[in-house]
Amino acid sequence: MPAPPIREKLAILADAAKYDASCASSGADRRNSLKSGGIGSTEATGICHAYAPDGRCISLLKVLLTNFCIYDCAYCINRSSSNVRRARFSIDEVVKLTLDFYRRNYIEGLFLSSGVIRSPDETMAEIVEVARRLRLENSFGGYIHLKTIPEASQELIEQAGLYADRLSINVELPTDEGVMRLAPEKRPQTIRRSMAGLREKLEAAAEPTLRTKKRSRFAPGGQSTQMIVGADTTPDATILKTSARLYGSYRLRRVYYSAFSPIPDSSAALPSMKPPLMREHRLYQADWMMRFYGFDQREILAGRPDGMLDLAIDPKLAWALDHRTIFPVDVNRAPRELLLRVPGLGTKAVKRVLASRVHRRLRLEDVGRVCQSIAAVRPFIVAEGWSPGGALDSERLRETVAPKAKQLELF
Ligand code: SF4
Asked: pTM to 2 decimals?
């Protein structure tokens, strides 16, 4: 059968890549090819940023090298037993597409993943070759995120780090049992070993060398991973526990949560419905609480016996409503850690509160100027001239501070 034309391949392989959530380029450092005479830059100017309605970054050319795959992961549309149209790019085609799209300012970089063809090593070698040609033969200075194949050799994964801004290795599912049941060819131990190898390499590269006193360049955006949510019955508490372990053990920059999408002709082991997208959103909020607000994963779900996040309100507000005795927090005296626990106060708002209160005692209006909604914050703080009185004891507090439910539209 003749190979489909490149436009058709692009339609197939870009569509096949849409299940990969790991596409944020925020971890990249600044790269500019003005001096090298090449093309591309991750400087702020001239970069086209675009976000899909669900908040995902789409300013990268996000494609698979191929959607042929010798593995048969039950949750994946590209699994070997799936009846989908297949296509395969050559290395040259991906390089050319990336450069063409970049020149037209359609993208700020490349996100490249692949099904496994022939062997993990052969597939990984092709992924690395795309990045090598972009960087070394075309002086490409844009962002490159490579999805690595955990079963590939450590040498190949390390080579990928020489050219990529960020590397990711998917843990796939939150538990080892889930991986073994739904992705029988994958080994959780191998995935962890590859992540540990990457962590070592990243840490070594972060140390200045004795001779040049410079740090070597190796995947400056670090490593990330993706977990599919809702493909099995794993509760949010276990998902967050796995994320906390991944952040702690492998120093990941990000764990991405990807709501399971039902696929055609899928295994009976999979649910027929996708989980609510809000579940993915709440997991990101809880993840943020662990990374930036100092919450332990066990605290976040302590008040939820079913181990599931409340879909109706954000987890920080849910935690505050369950721990009313620590509130109100005095914005003029409380330490940073306590201020970060106030619903509606993020890291930037807390920084501004701390900086402003050095000069004067803050009133409610001052706090209102640094946060998005003073209505959400008001019941949980004390400020100059303001106390929430009995608001914290009110049975209607949740109603008062929770976002109003929206009437769904029929059309
Ligand atoms: S290895 Fe990747 S592409 Fe292949 S079936 Fe599994 S998840 Fe899909």
From this structure: 0.87
